[in-house]
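Continuing from the previous page of notes. For each protein in this section, the sequence appears first, followed by its structure tokens. Read the first protein now.
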Amino acid sequence: MELSATIPALLSKQVAAYGSETILRHKDRGIWNAVSWTALDEQVRRIGEGLRGTGLRGGEVVAVLSETRPEFVYADLAILGCGAASVAISTEADSATVGATLRDTGAALAIVEGEEQLDKLLAVRADCPALRLIVIIDMKGLRDFRDNGCTSLSALIEGGGGSNWRAVTASVMPDQLAAIFVTRDGARHDLTHAGILRQVDTIGDQLGMRAGDERLAVLPMCDPAERVLGLYAALKHRIVSDYLENPETATENLREVKPTVFGANTEAWERLHARIRALAGNATFIQKRLYQWAVAAGGGTKQTLARWLVLRAVRAELGFGRLRVAFVGDRPLPDEINAWAEALGITVRYLNPLAEGETHV
């Protein structure tokens, strides 16, 4: 059996080999903070031991309702390290949808970002008999909140320890359930550790991902493209993941990070296209005509000249000056957007993140 046949085993292998290297960065108060493999592993261990302290065991399910942030990554990997499975629920989901997902998956625990997501769970908790504890990441606005069925993430960590975490993670098997995804059409997809790792191996080979690449995490964690093609692929291929301070800074952060890998959805590419069209519309007459000529230049020498004289600046404006790998996971790009990206020298691949090891319920 391959040593990294599970996600916890993969993490242990990478930590042992590359402990001091940066594997993720997050922006806080305008400053990018680096997190090494060793620091990531420590965060995962502390949360994992805390989860074990609640009685969480292999085969159970933990729901997570949070924006895309490092704490989600730590919690997700800790859940998988316990031998449990994680199901990410959209932060835009209403209470009824949250309750339905909790019941369908039999979630024993739920981890929520803060007060807004907590309120949704409290509204449906009585109808979710398997749910025994809610863990709150950010206690802002909840200083005086008391509930025996809830605890803070910091308190969870303090209550952990006492278990042999390495032995726990080593006991996770490749055919165990790792991640559950509920897509917009209501279909449920269950992926095992082995299925996920086969998928990220295949994707890495197809796209040419390589160690030292850098990506900006712009999709919600409930999107399979973010978890499978983003997080798990980044761990396997040693791609640095950058996490936004907040979604409103995505455009600015793209220009700062200049990612070599960009995974998004079709809507994000449509917004990027609309933004450049608006900028071109407000440009001088000559600039506008040059842009129109460059996009329509076609192949050969004319295309090379167009990219050098005009479209190189457009890529820089988008933050795509270093971009090598681009993909979407929801659906192929519309022809107009795809042609525009190709004119910029960007091939956007459509990849199904649920293609390997999935079941439909």
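Done with the first. The second protein uses the same format. Note its length before scrolling.
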Amino acid sequence: MKRKIKWLILLIVTLLSACQLFLGPEPDTSPSEVLKSLWTDFNNIHANLDFRMSDNLMYNSWYDVYHNKHTGYAFKIYSGISEESLFNVCASMLKELNDPHVGLYAPGKFSSSYTASREDFNIYTIRNELSEEGNGGYKNFVYGTFSLNPHIGYIYISSFINDEPETEGKEWGRAIDSIIKKFANTKALVLDVRSNRGGDIYVMEYIAARFASETKNYLKARIKTGSGSNDLSAPVIYTVKSIKKASDGKYGYTKPIVLITNKNTVSAAEWFTMALRTQSHVTHIGTTTCGAFSARNDRSMINGWIYSISPERVTDMNDKIYEGIGISPDKEHIIKNTTGDEQLEYAVKLAVELAKGTK
């Protein structure tokens, strides 16, 4: 009996040793290693550190500052730091990027890297200005013609978020075809993507195609592949495809379009903006977009927390980078809202002017 017990103990020890051999040692989850691991991941995966690092913090000192190498920062690692304080240190380090696609998640806690801008407009007030408004059965659209200018159409798109993944993101977006059909007798269109939160690229491209008079390449996207700033994959090129004539229930709108953006036009809505700016019948007005173009990936930390990160570097077809800057309308079309919705007023006025040359 004693011999069997000894063999059993030996077997358990051997199995545990084998597990450690194959799986490796448990990761060091000390506060210093948690911070270092997070920094290393961002160094290797985030594609836009050079464009998002704050002016007062050099890239090479980013980790050192929060690892107690400098005394001027309130958030840093110290002996005996609590889990909550460690979360605050990691969150504070990520806030340096001011990236809408970067966030930190722990049980009962969330911290966004980004501070949203205040650029107000009231969609409910706009509804009151429309003679025919609706949402096509989906909350993402508001549309109609203006009561005082019935030959000018209006479409507001609040997001491109895909709530129907089984349809590859196109099902709710198909409502745009029936909406455009309603504007057959208009002479120009105001297309509003202010404060559009972004979403699914399939949805965005399906909708963007309805406003394209020409098929155009509009964007290049590269994935970060290493720790070097320019360690990037070969570019994937994205194309907006024109729907010029009605076919299979699909409709295109190629009369003059005035596109409105603001600082809270984010992500896929910025791809939408970039796609439509390739079209000669589209005039971009409003204010600069957010400047967040990458897809967002969620990843696990060594201590079980989750973070989101931006692994893509996106440029226009001339390799111009808008990350952290945003896409700006031409100078003469930069309009800010101050006391009311001056952006919409300007857009309607411009649409009326552009419509004069439309049959």
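What the second structure shows: Residues 6-11, 15-21 have pLDDT under 50 and may be disordered. The first strand starts at residue 103 and ends at 106. We return to this in next week's lecture.
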